[in-house]
Write a structure and sequence with these properties.
The chain is α/β, with parallel strands linked by helices. It has 20 helices and 19 strands.
Length: about 475
């Protein structure tokens, strides 16, 4: 269901122009004065109000004050003349989300509205999570709840947040699966913080970074003289994490001997240091992570089945960034703020072209790659806005934008490609209208009828795609 906006302006041409520009993306109401606007707000659910600040003898500030008195007020964006920025700033001080100056750029208006509504959705999701975690937060006091670093309001990430809050208070062993760069360590950290165990009692071990002998000593510790070079007793990571959480990253890399010893620890909740036969009782919550398919490794005999069952009590599967493209801009803005502060720069935003490339790129390195890309862009930017030329070269050239690459004379088919997949439009003639219609239909089929993604692939706005579909009678 489309979100609903109310456009308030005493100039009919402005009202109608905005309505025509925005009605393909939103349900639009229009009002010419405050009284008419308030009547609509009383009878209809409105998500956002876009209002002029000067309307004949009335002030949009009065409407703003009335709006903000509602128990669940819609977002307010104010429009103002170029020379009245001080008034707009006063409106924001009173509670407006943002302002935009006239003459209006319709694409900028639409982008601003989408950002505002996205922020409202995120705020709503956060409030829901906050309500669900109220009792849990009482338990952990004023510690950070750990979810604030897992940015995203896509359905996939909302589900991840819910899973974390449900499993964190338990003692269950957790297996986190996901591609490199998806944030597996952040999930482990959130589970630990919400578990109520001491905040500083989470120990992390990268299993892929250590040899078999070193990993065994790292995990279980060793006694003096246990092997060549063991000149003194060493306390292992399990003992260090006693009472807290041990996070074993890249668990799929451990050898068979260590797998047997880890299975015994999970079964008996005791460890033995290398070179000792004395069991030591431990209370450790174990969380593991891998970018491999452990089920396939078990079937190939590369990973013990009994250990897999011990680790896989609860599984959290993180989506790749390409599976939650709607979170890209949210993440990019968060990283922009972080690196702008870190590098003492005054960068406010991204250009529309840069945003389009960021959302079109396939992100094989997931969130980690996006974070690095934004840091690069901030370093290379010398203005107050990130432009396309500030982005890494691979993103400038490798974004998933559909572009015609070849027309084969032998089979009269046009191949339209991005960096990972091929979309083919079969053509029996070169009539431009026919080609356009078939390309649009292919794009919709390719994106499973997601019009926003299809518009991005076609290199046009969603509004333009909507109008073309109307022309087609779809």
């Amino acid at each position: 269901m489309d979100e609903t906006i109310l456009i308030v302006d005493d100039e009919k041409s402005t009202r109608d122009g905005l309505r025509m520009a925005l009605e393909d993306s939103f349900d639009c109401y229009v009002a010419s004065d405050i009284r008419e606007a308030m009547n609509i707000l009383k009878s209809e659910k409105v998500d956002l109000v876009l209002t002029d600040l000067r309307m004949g003898g009335e002030s949009g500030m009065d409407l703003l004050d009335n709006i903000l008195q509602k128990s669940n007020p819609p977002i307010a964006i104010v429009m103002t003349a170029y020379g009245s920025v001080d008034t707009a700033v006063e409106a924001m001080r009173r509670g407006a989300w943002h302002f935009i100056t006239k003459p209006l750029n319709l694409d900028e208006v639409e982008l601003l509205i989408k950002r505002a509504l996205r922020s409202k959705t995120l705020e709503s999701n956060n409030k829901k999570l906050e309500s669900e975690n109220q009792e849990l937060r009482k338990k952990v006091g004023k510690q950070a709840h750990g979810l604030e670093r897992l940015i995203g309001d896509s359905p996939a990430m909302v589900n991840i947040h819910s899973m974390i809050t449900q499993i964190a208070p338990t003692k269950a062993t957790v297996l986190i699966e996901g591609e490199s760069g998806t944030g597996k360590e952040l999930v482990a950290g959130a589970i630990h913080i919400l578990s109520g165990r001491p905040k500083d009692k989470m120990i992390t071990v990268n299993c892929a970074a250590l040899s078999s002998q070193l990993l065994e000593s790292e995990l279980f510790g060793h006694e003096k003289g246990a092997f060549t070079g063991a000149t003194q007793r060493r306390i292992g990571r399990f003992e260090q994490a006693n009472g807290g959480t041990l996070f074993l990253d890249e668990i799929g890399e451990i050898d068979q001997v260590t797998q047997v010893k880890l299975l015994r620890v999970l079964s008996e909740r005791t460890i033995e240091r290398v070179g000792s036969n004395t069991p030591i009782k431990i209370d450790v919550r174990v969380i593991t992570a891998t970018n491999k398919n452990l089920t396939k490794m078990v079937s190939k005999g590369e990973f013990r089945e009994d250990l897999f069952f011990r680790l896989n009590v609860v599984k959290v599967t993180l989506p790749s960034l390409r599976e939650r493209k709607e979170d890209v801009i949210l993440l990019a803005n968060s990283f922009l703020k972080e690196f702008t502060i870190e590098n003492s720069k005054d960068i406010k935003d991204f250009s529309q072209e840069a945003l389009f490339l960021l959302q079109s790129y396939n992100w094989p390195g997931n969130v980690r790659e996006l974070r690095t890309a934004i840091e690069h862009s901030v370093v290379m930017c010398n203005s107050n806005k990130i432009e396309v030329l500030n982005l890494p070269l691979n993103i400038q050239s490798g974004a998933s934008i559909i572009t015609p690459t070849a027309i084969k004379s032998s089979d009269t088919s046009t191949e339209i490609t991005d960096n990972t997949e091929i979309l083919t439009v079969e053509c029996h003639d070169y009539n431009l209208h026919t080609l356009e219609n078939k390309t649009i239909k292919q794009a919709l089929a390719f994106t499973k009828n997601n019009r926003t993604t299809a518009a991005n692939l076609l290199g046009i706005s969603r509004r333009t795609l909507q109008r073309k579909l109307k022309d087609l009678g779809t």
